[in-house]
Specification:
Elements: E1 2-4, H1 5-8, E2 9-11, E3 17-26, H2 39-51, H3 58-62, E4 70-78, E5 87-94, E6 105-112, E7 118-125, E8 131-133, E9 140-142, E10 147-156, E11 169-174, H4 179-193, E12 198-200, E13 205-209, H5 214-224, E14 228-230, E15 237-241, E16 246-249, E17 254-255, E18 258-262, E19 265-270, E20 281-284, E21 289-293, H6 298-307, H7 312-324, E22 328-329, E23 331-334
Function: Assembles around the rod to form the L-ring and probably protects the motor/basal body from shearing forces during rotation.
InterPro entries: Flag_FlgI
Protein name: Flagellar P-ring protein
Length: 335
Amino acid sequence: MAERVKDLASLQGVRNNQLIGYGIVVGLDGTGDQTTQTPFTTQAMGNMLSQMGINLTADQATKLQLKNVAAVMVTANLGAFARPGQALDVTVSSIGNAKSLRGGTLLLTQLKGADGQVYGIAQGNVMVGGAGAGAGGAAVTVNHLAAGRIPGGATVERTVPTALGQGGYLYYELAESDFGTAMNMVSAINKAMGEGTAQAIDGRRIALRAPDSADARVSFLGRVENIEVRAAVAQARVVVNPRTGSVVMNQRVALLPCAVAHGNLSVVVDAGQPGRGGADVQVNQDGGSLTVAAGASLADVVKALNSLGANPMDLLAILQAMKAAGALRAELEVI
């Protein structure tokens, strides 16, 4: 199936920038930080009050009991082409021992980039999900209350220059390096926009000859990013997550003849004909063994192993053994 250029690649130089800031949330209902264990909350409050003309002595500052205040980290994502005055969503996360941020208000917080410059200002009421009443109000479900969001809670104060192409060329970068997909994309773009418009630099980057004026470039990219491209067939791959027991594979995975013994489980991939009754996978429930016809689906093998009581670590060990023996014709990735 064909995919659009914008789904397979991104435009070089058009990127997001992460912002971060330290702030305080006030107005909590006794669920804030225990200041005896989080001295930075007391220090932040003292600094804020001093800026407003209220000066506390060192002894007074150490005796503050701020159960309605929590120290937080504020994060935001500054998108490409953002301009001053634009609103951004922010995420507010507790860094102390506050029990909940529900009902709190974030005070004016500077959001800085990696270069230390201020790119935004955040303030507003924190919206915390995860708490709600059950049917009839009889039951209350409480999940994670130490983080929340403020939709449109930040304002952009400084823009990040975005260079859209250099020397008359624009560059697309594939999400994954693939020479076949790169050539298919070049062919599709040249067919739609004219021969010589695109050329592949390597397995990831594609150069496009673009118009000189900004308006013409925007129109040009609007057409290019919606061109449909047939992606090359992906490399055979098996992804295993031993923590959750998830095993994901694509359609290119194949098995070659082999025999694997793991504890009381055994797997035999036979090079001969499919098993009795035309089945590619034969399960022996009593002996804990599998007989698999060569070319059978790995999904059927994993399903049969699960029926024998194999746990995620058993699956991982068997797949790794098959890979080491050269019988699993796929890349094995453990996440």
